[in-house]
Amino acid sequence: MNAEKKKWLVLIIFFVIVIIISLVTLFNALKPKVDYESLNKEIAQYIHGLDNIIDIDIENTETGIYKITLDDKIWYSAEDKDKASYCLAVNTTITAICQKYKALKDTQKAYIYYYDESGVLIAEPSEKLYSLESKILY
User: Fold this and answer.
1) Measured CA distances, 94 to 3, 15, 70, 125 (Å)
2) Residue whose C-alpha is closest to residue 49's, from 94, 6, 9
3) HSE (CB half, 13 Å, CA atoms) of 97?
4) pLDDT tens, residue by residue, 58-100
5) Which sequence spans correspond to the domains of the chain?
6) CA triplet 58, 30, 98: central angle to 5 degrees?
7) CATH of domain 36-136
8) Which of 70, 80, 123, 138 could make an SS bond with 134 (beta carbons 3.0 to 4.6 A apart)?
């Protein structure tokens, strides 16, 4: 290969790389950003409508990890099936809110950990991959 062909080959490769980098940058710039302020407001509004939730701690909105503190009297007086139903309803709603604001993809779920007032973990996300159910510990 002579010098002229090598020069053109290097130029073509250089411009292809520049075009690829430009396209990646353009797609990242056009991708809608997550409005975390509105997301957190909607989650807080939902949570404050529930009587037995004392506090919610948003560990990481990008990965959907939340810590919820529940009222001891209500939690420990409920039956296991009621606890499971309650956790499923809260998990489903918070996951839907996160997906609505595009904080989570449609195939992802929010990981919600439930604690009692003394800080004991009482329910955690299920180990099943796509299940929104919680594993009741106490």
Assistant:
1) 62, 46, 16, 13
2) 94
3) 22
4) 777 677 788 999 998 989 999 989 999 999 999 999 999 999 9
5) 1-31, 36-136
6) 25
7) 3.30.70
8) 123
- DSSP letter at 69? E
Q: Which residue has the tokens 């002229």?
A: 4
Backbone region of residue 102 per phi and psi (left: phi > 0; alpha: psi in -120 to 50; beta: other values): left
Helices within the chain (DSSP H only) = 3-30, 36-48, 72-77, 80-100
Check: CB of residue 125 under 8 Å from CB of residue 111.
yes
What's the pLDDT band for 30 if we cut at 50, 70, 90?
confident
Helices H / strands E in the chain, number of each: 4, 5
Q: Amino acid letter at 29?
A: A
In this structure, the number of other CB atoms found within 10 A of the CB of residue 116 comes to: 17
